[in-house]
Design brief:
Layout (H helix, E strand, L loop, with lengths): L10 E2 L9 E2 L7 E2 L2 E2 H5 L1 E4 H6 L22 H18 L3 E5 H4 L6 H22 L2 E6 L18 H20 L4 E4 L5 E2 L7 H22 L4 E4 L9 E2 L4 H10 L6 E6 H6 L4 H9 L4 E5 L18 H14 L6 E3 L11 H27 L3 H7 L6 H7 L5 H8 L13 H13 L1
Parallel strand pairs: 1-2, 5-6, 5-14, 6-7, 7-8, 8-10, 10-12, 12-13, 13-14
Antiparallel strand pairs: 3-4, 9-11
Helix pairs in contact: 3-5, 5-6, 6-7, 10-11, 11-12
């Protein structure tokens, strides 16, 4: 029996369509900048918000109406939920999904029981993948919800919790490999500190580095070829998380010799919580060859916490796609790490939310591709830095100049040449013109 009987497969109907269950901009087979939209965007539905989100918040319990749930935390219910999830993926025409181990299968009284539960549900996931063609973009382990992880997982002060975390990741990696996952993500939900009085930061970071090296070693042992990803976030639930932003993550990876094995999964809401724009975090990771994937959401600037809302702002999606077209995204994807509002509690709202954000990213892709093709921003950017194309600039950039050389050049002039205008307002107007088309 269908969980969404009122919904047929979502199709592209074009910008003039007013059908809320159709795409206006996302046309999977349309070629933009040399690739299909489907290949550019690699849309991914996340299991945790879409199928495990209850609508609860710090001030009230769950609100979501999910008629396929039987009210139990049983393996049978988890298997039924998996089949419902794949009906949703298939009708949405989403090519990928992603999960935490504890999203898809209930945690047992022991690690062995938890592993058995995960194996049982993974069998259904594999059957559904084969039936629908939907692929696993990435798997990961939830090492933040259970009270055992109150002090962290790979940065815990309790060595037995550290061992438990290692065993849990080992199993999650095995299942991810079995399901053909193209990536494996680490989000350090409690890898940080609340109080430095009781924290040995260096020891904790050393333990985290050692943990990641063990993960790399095990991936080689079992033949897992997927990309490892770290997801930066500055706070929540800890006061300070060690993976606070792209710069902190890359510094950590270099310090512990892990840059060959890890890239970053950048999230909009996490970027803004860190005091950055999404475009900044993407550019910082991309310019260093470390951009692996993105979590497609946004926050509410009037609230100030991780609200994980669906991104529907064309300016935001255009900015994101300007960077992604420069650096690429594969083997990652555009992951909808976003949840419907607790007031949007009916199953149909899941479709409205995903359709709207998929359209927003498709629109952003087309606008960004046109801007790049026309050189609308690049020509002004090149002009701004044109002095660096001189012999003096080339000598500095190639390492041929010293302080003495530069002093000898500028001293006779007495003053530097006049600056060029930054033209920020003009650049913003240009982007507006493309969005108006």
């Amino acid at each position: 029996m269908s969980a969404f009987p009122e919904v047929s497969k979502i199709k592209y109907e074009g910008p003039k369509s007013d059908n809320p269950l159709a795409f206006r901009w996302y046309n999977p087979d349309e070629v933009v900048a040399g690739k299909t939209m489907k290949d550019h965007l690699r849309f991914t539905v996340v299991y945790w918000h879409t199928f495990r989100g209850s609508g609860s918040d710090p001030f009230g319990g769950g609100t979501m109406h999910r008629p396929w749930e039987d009210g139990t935390d049983s393996v049978q219910n988890a298997c039924n939920r998996a089949r419902v999830a794949f009906e949703f993926f298939e009708k949405l025409d989403a090519p990928f999904y992603a999960f935490h181990d504890r999203d898809v299968a209930p945690e047992g009284a022991t690690l062995a029981e938890s592993n058995a539960n995960l194996d049982a549900v993974a069998k259904v996931l594999k059957e559904e993948q084969q039936r629908t063609g939907v692929k696993l973009l990435w798997g990961t382990a939830n090492m933040f919800s259970n009270p055992r992880f109150m002090h962290g997982a790979a940065t815990t002060c309790n060595v037995e919790v550290y061992a438990y975390a290692a065993a849990q990741v080992k199993k999650a990696m095995e299942v991810t490999k079995e399901l053909g996952g193209e990536n494996y993500v680490f989000w350090g939900g409690r890898e940080g500190y609340q109080c430095l009085y009781n924290t040995d930061m260096k020891r904790e970071l050393d333990h985290l580095g050692r943990f990641f090296h063990m993960a790399v070693d095990y991936a080689k042992e079992i033949g897992f070829k997927g990309q490892f990803l770290i997801e930066p976030k500055p706070k929540e639930p800890t006061k300070h998380q060690y993976d606070s932003d792209a710069a902190a993550c890359l510094n950590f990876l270099r310090t512990y010799g892990l840059t060959d094995y890890f890239k970053l999964n950048i999230e909009t809401n996490h970027a803004t919580l860190a005091g950055h724009e999404m475009m900044h975090e993407l550019e910082y990771a991309g310019m260093q060859g470390a951009l692996g994937s993105i979590d497609a959401n946004t926050g509410d600037l009037l609230l100030g916490w991780d609200t994980d809302q669906f991104a529907t702002n064309y300016y935001l999606t255009t900015q994101i796609m300007l960077v992604l077209l420069k650096y690429g995204l594969s083997p990652g994807g555009v992951n909808f790490d976003a949840k419907v509002r607790r007031e949007s509690f009916e199953p149909i709202d899941l479709f409205y939310a995903h359709i709207g954000s998929m359209d927003a990213f498709a629109r952003g892709l087309k606008v960004a591709a046109s801007i790049i093709e026309d050189g609308a921003l690049s020509s002004l950017l090149s002009k701004r830095y044109s002095s660096w194309d001189s012999e003096l600039g080339r000598n500095i950039e190639s390492g041929k100049s010293s302080f003495r050389d530069l002093e000898a050049f500028i001293m006779p002039k007495g003053e530097a040449a006049r600056n060029q205008s930054g033209r920020q307002e003009l650049l913003e107007n240009i982007v507006n013109r493309y969005l108006d088309r």
